[in-house]
Every structure is written in C-alpha cells, then in structure tokens.
Design brief:
Structural class: alpha/beta
Strand content: 15-25%
Oligomer: single chain
Largest sheet: 8 strands, parallel
Radius of gyration: 22 Å
Distance between the termini: 16 Å
Helix content: 25-40%
Length: 447
C-alpha cells in the first residue's frame, strides 16, 4: 500500500514524494549489526549508513582568522585550516550534516594543498594547523555528534621524481616499485601495471616490502586511535592489491570507504570485503550522463546492475554527484538540473556525500578550478543551502536508510528536475516529462 507525503514550503509549494518502505525484521537487523565489527566509538557499518557526509577540501573551506579575500592561485595553498573548519561547524550542521570528510592530514611536498602528496608520515600538515587544532576539530565535532572521516593515502608519495631522500620514512629506492607510468590503456586491461606503475608520475610504494607494509598498517592504526577518527576514505584503492586492503581495514577497525575510480560494477565488487564499502562511481557516471543528456536508459541499466551485483551492500556505498577529482556538474548544466543531482544524492540508496560548494552553486571545471575557496561565499540563505537542509531533514524524518526504497524509473521520457529549493513540480515539454522525484512508502500498520 502506498501513500504520498507532502513537504509544504513557506510559499505553499510542494515536494511530492512516494517512498517504498520494505518490511524489516527488527531481530534480524540487530543480528546483522552484531556481525559487523565495532569501531573505537562503537560505530558499525549499519550505523554509518544513517549519516550524511559533507566533503571538505581543508585548504579551501575556511581561514582561521575569518579572512575572506580571494585566493590568487588555486594551484597553491590558499589558507584554509582545521581551526577554520572548527569555527564554521555551525555552517555545516545548519545544512543537517552529521559527518565530515576532510583532506589527508600528513605533511606534503610543496604545493600539496590537497593533501595527496605525502612527504613525512610522522608530521601533520603545518599549513592546516598543529596537533592541538586538529584534536580540537575532532573533539568539537564529536561534541556535536558529527563523525570525522579522514582521507588516507597508502599508494604513493609526493612528486619527487626518483630522488626519495626527502620522503620520510620511505627514503630508499627499495621502498618503491620500479619506474614505469600507468597508461590510459592499462586502466581496464592491465591490473599489474595499475598496481605497480606510477599514477600521474607519483612514486609508487612497494607494499610487498615488509618495512613499507608494516609501517603503513601501523601508521593508520595509530592515527585512528590517537585522534579518535570515526572513518576513513581510502584513496587510489585499485592501485594496490586486495590482500593489502584486507590487512589495512582489519588494522584500524573503523569504517572504510574506498575510492575505485572506475565505472565497471563487477570490478568494483571485488574490493568490497577487503574494505567496508566504496564510493559509488558507476552510479556517479550514470547519473552525470543522465543529467547532461536527459536520457534515462543508462541510469536505469546501471541501477539495475548495481542492485544485482551489490545487493544490500548498496546501503553503505557513498553516493555523490561532485567531488574534487571531477569538474562540477554545474559547469555543464543549469542550476535547476544541478539541484536535481543534489536531490538524487540525498534520497538515493547509500550514504549521501555533498562536496563543499554545491550549497553555493559553485561551477568550477577541471582541477584546480573545481576546488574554489568557500569563504568568498558562505551564504546560509542561498537556495541550494536551504534545499540541502530540507532534504537532510526529510531523510532523517523518514529514516530513509532503514527503508527498501528505490527510485522509480520508467523510460527516457522521465527525468528529475527540482523547480525550486522547496518543491519539485511536474511539467510537460514535448515528449519529455519533467517530473516529481518519486519514491514509494508503505503505510505503517495501525496499532
């Protein structure tokens, strides 16, 4: 049996949403939860799926002194810090987010503002702050019931050519694979080269070397314990063997979400198990294609295959439409279509991830233009900010992560367009139907 829920706005406009809630055996849920290992804070994989994540590029979110002058060179540090994040948690929490994902925290080679060019694993990135300010960020987040996910890199060091003397502790050629670079043709055809050659000429760590392996496993375990980290976003997962990731995940016993930058569903499935879950790149590519071309065929095919291959594991996958590695969707589409992408992320099956700046309608193209400083526009009254806030409230109120909901897809005549931040409306445009976001909800039995 189905009902329709209506979310009323100040202007008496409506979001009409149909949601299907499948029967859930409470005892079974508890039994499954007990099967998942608990983190230091008691967070299971089941608990993480209720969270909504706000992704932050630490250097681009907020300066510690409130300075809002623009950044003159996006290829260099712009001044964002951990203290800047701490001072602006109200901004994040105001949208309804209860988890943040921040940049890698270790010391980087010059201009490593993004955090992915590690130089010294024993030092924190001084551009982001010191140990005190990092601890204060985590502690304040926890006080507010915001979980902290940090980005971690085990695959490579910063771009230093073949002189490894400045990298600590991996300062010997023995710590790296022999020199070769990954070619585009290797991505789907040569996994050995994917795991043993350099990505973008970044020195590829030799994880089969006992010292390298043991250090990386101990380092991540110590960081999680020392700073009480709640989860890890794991970089460049497809560039290291699965057996390494199995050990990596077991060493930390916190939620691990890996990045496999690939749209092949069967290929991604092999990394679930070694890690808890993955970013849902197949859905990202399909949704991007749909929103840019307004053709539902590939989206429906991808969604069907994802359900067939991943099943319940879809509940834990990270759903996103923007991130730091891809041009922002808004660069290619209208404001309204971009908001449709946000809506899809927020109510899809999985853990929603919103990339900072989406709430301010940022439209940067390729890296580094998609890594704009946020401090030039932190407007809580913006349409997208309020739209995301509404969707987060709806997701929590309906507890969508507990339901068996699915997007209903018919054919190429159906696509999703939010007309304003408080409502979704149906329109006819020739053969195409711009429709409400449809979900189904089963009525609860009357007591």
């Amino acid at each position: 049996m189905c009902i329709r829920d209506r979310i009323q706005s100040k202007q008496d406009k409506v979001i009409q949403i149909k949601i299907l809630i499948m029967p859930i055996n409470t005892a079974l849920v508890w039994a499954l939860a007990l099967m998942f290992p608990f983190t230091h804070a008691g967070h299971t994989k089941e608990e993480w799926k209720s969270r909504a994540i706000y992704q932050i590029l630490t250097d681009r979110f907020a300066r510690p002194d409130g300075d809002t002058r623009p950044c003159t060179d996006f290829r260099k540090y712009c001044g964002g810090t951990w203290k800047g994040i701490t001072k602006n948690l109200d901004y994040i929490q105001g949208m309804g987010f209860d988890a943040i994902w921040i940049s890698p925290i270790v010391d980087n080679t010059p201009n490593g503002y993004h955090g992915y060019w590690a130089r010294d694993w024993e030092k924190l990135n001084a551009f982001f702050g010191d140990e005190t300010s990092f601890r204060e960020l985590v502690e304040e987040c926890h006080r507010r019931n915001i979980w902290v996910m940090i980005d971690v890199v085990a695959n490579h060091a910063g771009p230093i050519g073949r002189d490894y003397s400045t990298i600590k502790p991996f300062n010997s050629p023995d710590h790296y694979h022999d020199y070769c670079n990954i070619e585009d043709s290797d991505i789907d055809n040569n996994q050995w080269r994917m795991e043993n050659c350099r990505l973008a000429d970044l020195p590829d760590l030799k994880e089969e070397n006992p010292f390298v392996r043991e250090y990386l496993l101990k380092w991540v375990k110590d960081v999680v314990k020392k700073y009480q980290i709640d989860g890890l976003r794991v970089d460049t997962v497809a560039h290291m063997p699965k057996d390494f990731w199995s050990e990596y995940s077991k060493s930390v016993r916190v939620f691990t979400m890996g990045e496999v930058f690939n749209g092949r569903i069967d290929f991604l499935k092999g990394y679930v198990g070694p890690l808890d879950t993955l970013l849902n790149y197949p859905l990202f590519f399909a949704m991007r294609d749909f929103l840019r071309k307004l053709s539902f065929g590939s989206l429906w095919t991808t969604y069907t295959q994802l359900h067939k291959v991943f099943g319940k594991e879809l509940d834990y996958m990270g759903v996103f439409i923007n991130n730091h590695d891809n041009p922002r969707l808004r660069h290619y589409v209208s404001e309204e279509v971009s908001r449709a992408g946000i809506a899809f992320v927020m109510v899809s099956r999985g853990i929603p991830i919103i990339y900072y700046g989406e709430e301010q309608d940022f439209n940067g193209e390729n890296d580094p233009l998609n890594r704009e400083p946020l401090w030039t526009k932190m407007d809580k009254s913006s349409r997208n900010y309020q739209f995301i806030k509404t969707l987060n409230e709806f997701r929590r109120e309906m507890r969508l992560w507990e339901t068996g909901y699915e997007q209903i897809v018919y054919d190429d005549r159906l696509y999703v367009i939010p007309v304003s931040y408080t409502h979704l409306r149906a329109h006819e445009t020739g053969r195409n139907l711009v429709c409400r976001l449809l979900l189904e909800k089963k009525k609860k039995k009357k007591k």
